[in-house]
Write a structure and sequence with these properties.
This protein has 152 residues and is of the alpha+beta class. 32% of the residues lie in helices and 17% in strands.
Length: 152
């Protein structure tokens, strides 16, 4: 299935929601790149991700990890993401890597306190949304990578 992964890598490279998508250390089963959120509080930066494909892909889902620290209810402190699309109960072998990345970007753009790995952050988002936004904006300012220039 390395041929399918290589084809999907080309598709991900042309997607506007990410930049610098490439194999990590030359391994086509491990990608890295930058996600570019569209909405506050994360749109002031870019977030490094890693997408890892098992040897059984596409019968097993890839695993998305954020390498850039982010203050988000669905991302734990190690960068693991609560992403139902890639859970074994929801995964479909026809799902493409670009769909996994698009779903991840959608999660960053629209934090959902029901998809939680950090209950304290989810509670803050629900009960004190202004505080959550300020804290997430500050965290983004301190940790996110600079956004690349728009493609021409």
């Amino acid at each position: 299935m390395a041929g399918r992964i290589a084809k999907e890598l080309e598709e991900a490279r042309s997607w506007e929601g990410a930049r610098d998508v490439r194999p990590l250390d030359g391994n086509v089963r491990r990608w890295t790149g930058l996600l570019l959120p569209n909405n506050p509080p994360y749109n002031a930066g870019a977030f490094r991700f890693e997408l890892t494909f098992s040897p059984n892909h596409p019968h097993e889902p890839p695993r998305a990890t954020l390498r850039t620290p982010i203050y988000h209810p669905s991302v734990d402190l190690e960068g693991r993401v609560c992403q139902p699309l890639t859970s074994h109960g929801h995964w479909e072998p026809a799902t493409r890597a670009i769909q996994v990345l698009q779903d991840l970007l959608l999660q960053l753009d629209s934090p959902d306190p029901r998809r939680l790995l950090r209950p304290d952050v989810a509670r803050e988002l629900q009960e004190r949304p202004e505080e959550f936004l300020l804290r997430a904006e500050e965290h983004t300012r301190l940790h996110a990578e600079p956004r690349p220039q728009p493609r021409t």
